[in-house]
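User: Quick sanity check before I run a bigger batch. Here is a single chain. Can you write out its predicted 3D structure?
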Amino acid sequence: MSPVPTSTTAQLTFFVQPPDGVRAFQHINFVNSGPSGGDRIRNFEREQKEVIIENLRGQEDFVSLDKTGFQIVHHPAKHTSFTGDAEIEREYYPESIELIKKVTGASRVVLFDHTIRRHRPGQIDDAPDRRQPVAQAHVDQTTASSIARVHRHLPADEAPELLKHRFQIINLWRPISHSAIDWPLALCDYRSVDPKNDALPVALIYPDREGETYGIKYNPNQKWKYFYGVTPEEAIFIKCFDSIQDGSVAIFTPHTGFSDPTTPEGTQLRESIELRALVFYD
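Assistant: Done. Predicted structure follows.
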């Protein structure tokens, strides 16, 4: 058996801001039909940079949601089939809510969606049931879209009071059926991020609505990390937003899937599920 690597070097994809201050956008379910078919319609460019990504195996206790913006826990799920949305919402959601409360100390957790990702080379990612690992450094929410999420998913008479207190958006990411050695998840230590210059808003255009995420620009000061061989018995917490923004805690975690050039041939293709949670505190 090969020794666990201390790091890997890989190409990560970063956001390049459109010229002249134009707002960046990307259509989610529409793709180009030309020579670059399969690529979502967007008005910004991307660039690849070779990055050293440190393996945090053996150092799991040195990261946390408030310090680095992410953490990993060993917590086998009772639900393991992940075959249908209704079943996932009925069986996996309740246990995940309890796990998030346990890890964060939150008083209330509202799950507002989930995505299953399966690495299928050559398949076009143009529908919710065909999602591939995301191959671009990003953060799922901006401050504006996080506040909008509270208004969208909570009763109108409750949202104003909830927004007076601390709240977060956290993703709970877990491999399905086998370890995620193929296309692992890279996470950027928030302490190495320049939030004002590294993270820029990108409008996500859906057929029925508009969302907003952060595209992440390359910065050589960024420190990228991963956990080698995350198992289905483990889960990674990824902070996408925190209403505390006084410098005392991590606000978000840039993250991306990546192709690890050291992945052995024949490795099972990555399958994973991520839940997105509104996390409230008294």
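The longest helix spans residues 85-104.

User: Great, the batch can go ahead then.
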